[in-house]
Amino acid sequence: MRPLRFCMFSTFYPPYSYGGDGITLQRLCRALVRAGHEVTVVHDADAFLSLGHAQPNAPPADDGVQVVTLRSSLGLVSVLLTYQFGQPVVHRADIESLLARGHFDIVHFHNASLVGGPGLFGLARRSATLYTAHEHWLICPTHVLWRHGRERCTGRECFRCTLHYGRPPQLWRSTGLLERSLVDIDTFIALSDFSRAKHHEFGFPREMEVLPPIVFDADAERIDAPAVSPHPRPYFFYAGRLERIKGLDDVLPLFREGNAPADLLIAGAGSHESALRAIAGGSPRIHFLGHLPPERLAPLYRYAIAHIASSVCFETFGNTLVEAFRQRTPVIARNIGPFPEIVAHAGAGELFDDADGLRTSLQRFASDRALRDRLGAAGRTAYEATWSEEAIVPRYLDIVERTMARRRAPALATARVVAASPA
């Protein structure tokens, strides 16, 4: 394939990023640059800052990735206009100018919610277009299908649910803008079979390719775990945001018990942390480590008995499961969302439905080192074959090539008709 010019749109991009979507986009962009392609990323700084985060120091380029940071003197007002109208109200002219100058082969939309909404899609008609559903934004105003902030969504109650989250309902969602804008996307991508099925269950009308994210880039592969465990006693490990939807509420009580098989180390931060600390009750078995950079997480995964993936919501993928597999560590995952397909594909863990099932798995892994090591080795093999950069980039470029071919086909057909017409 010849070198291509990519333009990526995302609300968040490091260092203006706090979640997985920005990080996984950065890994894809760096991988494409290493493969010889040109990549430009457009993101919105005001969206990040409006959430109360501090101003980071943003580099002009990111390992060869050209980064365009949108800012406005209107700040939060700019973000609210996009949120309410689903259009890049403030930045439309700048985006149109960038797309006209860039002559991009591919324009790929990621988390587009606050960088321009569905009104962005039609601005890229000169390029082949893709959209990756990092969250469930296409079918859910709150992105997470967690209804009223307390339960998994099994049917739409969007107006009342949005109010429960303390957000104003989005005007554009009642205008048909999203449905009209879908025609401007050539290819939609889901991160898992589960997420694709969930989109269709909630009425999403378009077909979706399935392509998981790059969980580690090539640079991370050169980082070796130390030879000594970072914790003096055997432990299980959790990494992720500390929010109710991540399901730690019913994990912590098992480690308060006197017969807990090991310690629990928790890496992450979030709005639910104080409640979780209260549940932990000061137990010497439970250790809150706070938010840690990726290089600090690797040894914690590596020496854990197993990684616990406890989300109670409908995730689109399971990055932390793959992070564990890379370190030859098996997982104990809740039997929900994409976790069953990931665990089944890797053959590298167990699933649980309730506290009794989790307790049984904890005891089995803690007492059977051979089982732990055998499943961990299977996880590493699956990581290399399925989720590494070397595995994902060719699959991504295949989707790109097929998308571009579909765009070319009508033009070629028209040209043939014109050529065959009598003078």
Notable traits:
16 strands, eight-stranded mixed beta sheet, 16% strand, Rossmann fold, 423 residues, three-stranded parallel beta sheet, single chain
User: What is the number of beta strands?
Assistant: 16
Largest sheet: 8 strands, mixed
> Which structural class best describes the helix and strand composition?
alpha/beta
Briefly, what CATH class of the largest domain? Alpha Beta
Mean pLDDT: 91
Shape: globular
Distance between the first and last residues' Cα: 37 Å
Q: How many domains, in number, for the residues?
A: 2
Radius of gyration in whole Å, from Cα? 23 Å
- Low-confidence segments, given as residue ranges, are 412-419
Instruction: Provide the CATH topology of the largest domain.
Output: Rossmann fold
Question: Helix segment count?
Answer: 15
Written overview of the protein:
With 423 residues, the protein is of the alpha/beta class. It folds into two domains: 5-214 and 390-415, Rossmann fold (3-Layer(aba) Sandwich), CATH 3.40.50; 221-387, Rossmann fold (3-Layer(aba) Sandwich), CATH 3.40.50.2000. Helix content is 39%, strand content 16%. It has 15 helices and 16 strands. The strands form four sheets. Strands 3-4-2-1-5-6-9-10 form an eight-stranded mixed beta sheet. α9 links the parallel β12 and β13. The chain is globular, with a radius of gyration of 23 Å. It starts with a strand and ends with a helix. The model is unreliable at 412-419 (pLDDT under 50).
